[in-house]
Amino acid sequence: MSSELLVRPISLADHARVSFLVNNAEYLHRHLDWRGPLDWIGQEPFLGIERQNRLLAVLACPRDPTSIAWIRLFAYLDWHTSQMDLCWAQLLEGLCAQVEPGKKYTLAALGLQSWFSNLLLNSGFSHRQNIVVLQWSGETRSLRSLPPEVQLRPMLAADIPGVLAVDNRAFDPLWRHSMTELEMAFQQAAYASVADLSGEIIGYQISTGSSYHAHLARLAVDPGLQRLSIGYALVWEMIDFFYRRGTPQISVNTQSDNLYSLSLYEKVGFQRTGDEYPVYTYFIP
Question: How many CB atoms lie within 10 A of CB 253?
Fold first, then answer.
């Protein structure tokens, strides 16, 4: 039996083996996501590496949108011989080999743990920015007046196409959501609302939550209308919703270089916690 490492695609037939690996891995990176790690099986690229029919590691980076791929899952199980660096290098090489020549392709990853950050930096990833964590201070602020033609209302499933259009205008490609991601976010939301201007969606927020903690997962306002206090109103209404429900903690994340969002959240009553997570990118020419 060969003792060489074999890189191969992961298929639905590998579900049980990947589940065992994820549940027992010494090293596990899971992207902050609407899906569980096993939900990515069946989407490409999802690669595994094995030796003597033992699955050592998996790497999932589905392209969505097509030019951007976040590392959704990396798991490594040490079968008595430490080969994580080698497994990672071969998986990354196998991933790059699948990209069509001349097609622009950017890998992105969150450095949620120091060992993963080191793995990325040692592989040629570049530090792009940080994700900043903010916590609501518990101080209620007054609602700023909106133009009379702008209405805030609960989000409906039928609003998703309009929400997607706002999302794609508001964010650069690295941070845009797909239709599928927005549908999943809406389905899992504790509270979601939109800003409606004469029947057209111009802003939205999606928040998750429990009885103890809520999180503003997504906020976007049409870039041409960001000075009308629409974002402020959406966040204020979200806070009011959870405040009246008795939820004591509310958090939000944003990019360290997104000065508009940082200023908005601080005006509504959020304060930085001091927690930050690096974002890394790797360009495949």
Answer: 17
